[in-house]
Amino acid sequence: MNGHRVVVIGGGFGGLQTVRALRGAPVEVTLVDRQNFHLFQPLAYQVATGALSAAEVASPLRAVFKRQRNVEVVLAEAVGVDIDKREVQLGVLPTGEEGRTLPYDTLVAATGSRYSYFGHDDWRPFAPELKSLAGALDIRDRILGAFEAAEVEPDAQRRSAWLTFVVVGAGPTGVEMAGQIAELARDTVRRDFRAADTRQARVLLVETADRVLTGFTPSLSRRAYKALESLGVTPLLGRTVVAVGPESVSIADADETVDEVPARTAVWAAGVTTTGFAGRLAAATGAATDRAGRVTVDPQLTLPGHPEVFALGDMIRIGDTALPGLAPVAMQQGRFVGRVIRDRLAGRTPPTAFHYHDKGNLATIGRSRAVAEIGPLRISGFPAWALWLGVHIVYLIGFQNRLLVLLRWSFSFLTHGRGARLITAPTQTHQSVAQPPP
Amino acid sequence: MNGHRVVVIGGGFGGLQTVRALRGAPVEVTLVDRQNFHLFQPLAYQVATGALSAAEVASPLRAVFKRQRNVEVVLAEAVGVDIDKREVQLGVLPTGEEGRTLPYDTLVAATGSRYSYFGHDDWRPFAPELKSLAGALDIRDRILGAFEAAEVEPDAQRRSAWLTFVVVGAGPTGVEMAGQIAELARDTVRRDFRAADTRQARVLLVETADRVLTGFTPSLSRRAYKALESLGVTPLLGRTVVAVGPESVSIADADETVDEVPARTAVWAAGVTTTGFAGRLAAATGAATDRAGRVTVDPQLTLPGHPEVFALGDMIRIGDTALPGLAPVAMQQGRFVGRVIRDRLAGRTPPTAFHYHDKGNLATIGRSRAVAEIGPLRISGFPAWALWLGVHIVYLIGFQNRLLVLLRWSFSFLTHGRGARLITAPTQTHQSVAQPPP
Predict the structure, then answer these.
(1) pTM of the model
(2) Exactly one of B77, B129, B176, B373 is catalytic; which is it?
(3) Does 1.10.3720.10 match the CATH number of domain B119-269?
(4) DSSP character for B13?
């Protein structure tokens, strides 16, 4: 050990690849994360609809790095950084201790993004987000709780509000979520209820842009739109959510006419921004940030004037370029940063600029439906769905999870069932499980 | 439909079998439960140690009865009963509505038991119980959080308190739990940590009786004791817990000398009592209750003077006889009650008294270790463990869960790993994940 200390903040796709790329390198790596697991975020929406269990899309970080002896994992939030002292400030430790600092020689910030709620954090309790495992489990409890409420609600109008689901944002996550809720209502739980007809459920997908999946070419957006409609989703394009409350979502169209839709369940998947740490890092280094909070880094993914500080993933832009907030981007950047650190320590000349190799873009809409864009290729329908399945199985962490997910999906495909339809929040005796916390 | 309304309260082993036994009968069954799933409680402890996922030991009630068209499921707590009006009073519904009643022609109470905490409900926040899925998930977060805390705790004495686990009660659940925590610390997570030596973990198993597993013959108790010791568990027999706090558990011996053991994690599995509904049912019918709150029923499992009201499982005693609180007892009683209801409606003479067919008793202690008592047979070690595995797989609800659990166990056995080691409580920024709620 030469004792070169690398602190990596964030165990998402970017952070994980950085640490892996440092395997066997003469460094002491400390990986800091608020959670004890890596979340395979592209499948979090399947937890939210009971198709998969939490453990099938999340791998304990310590298990991932069990055999990489130069890695230490610390379960804490990074709350600040002292660039001159080269120290990261940690939040509350699992012991309850506060105020500890972590010295570094090289810092890698990979803290990702979160949803902005268009600046309305007060909407958050009524429309949880799909970025975290806790959020996905919360959404699962609410969706299943809404069906339960519809079953015992005698008033038709109120029942209809329990069977109305609003998904905000028609990017890949919003599209996948809306498709799955529609399938859940119209297919999976259809025969589970006696009084409520879950086929009457309405799933509204609200998007400010004039098409769904703006990251894809317009022709694939049109195919996705049609696939959503055939699943029973109502895409509302060119509309903006202007208010979210416990019993309704208000949606404005281009003329600013506002429609207050009675709906008891909303899911947020629109408008990303960076985490608090990104802002603190930018302030500490004097780096510029854009409107979405992304920190401007050099082509080598370092902060201006601070070659010892890297940042990557969807918390950065490289000069004027903001790459899409996708797992492959963060993973390639993680491997790049690992390479630069190794080269520097070995006295080799490291690569001077990161280049993204776009291998394509995939989104699934529901059973047997997906769209894919690979270079000049445009694929939709079953072939795209098969590709989506394959890619997601391959990139899942851990052989056991791959096999279990494959099995679960096979069961779901054959039986139209979903095994993990549990409401796991502690029983609330004096409060509805489907209601947001006070 | 002749409209005979059967209300079954509780979707545990007894309630589930009652409902199943009424399949195709000319009745309208309403199954009332606070949870939307049946918990396979004998495996809840495996969720608490990350060996299994919640969805693998819990089946959505609606999915279980999807094809049984005479069943309606209501997600609510039964808070009272009006014996004269023949109505069950429901607590808060998923809509938030309160005060609804459910009329019945026949009532079946199967509300089970909970832990009594020896009358000290104030200990509950510091020593969660293993009866519910929420409890098991809470325990999982605490055990994993305690290892995380030990990893960052510089003080040796404090670290030792984080690595001390107290399990209260050496019945099957307590024994299984203690064995699994010891295996987790000494084997599974051993290489996960860098600073903390988890092999130093102490697992104390406190039992008031002078042997473990008092439901078994003394020779098997001795074998179980030795198996526990070889796993690294310290059984403390003839001792009683007299206080539980956030940082210690106080244990008194026969001389009433009290030892305050610094321990940050405790699990409760001792001293069962019945739920509030059992007491209300006894009060409403004038039935006697014993010290553990069990309601005295007639040999036909009906309340005295109320042939239309059945009760079963570990909430009852039949005359002076309290059968062991085991799943097979409740299941046989459920089938018996279903049979009596069917016979009555068909004008046949129903059986007049329930008889328990004791097929044996099983408890596992850890990897390859178990004890079994089948009639005159006493088995321990690997054969008992293989039997335990087989029985638990067979009795799990649902083919998919059987296969998934079998796979998980095979992986765990081969790799010494546990796939579901997640801390899933929402991130608490200003509070330790391992600390009990205020």
Answers:
(1) 0.90
(2) B176
(3) no
(4) H
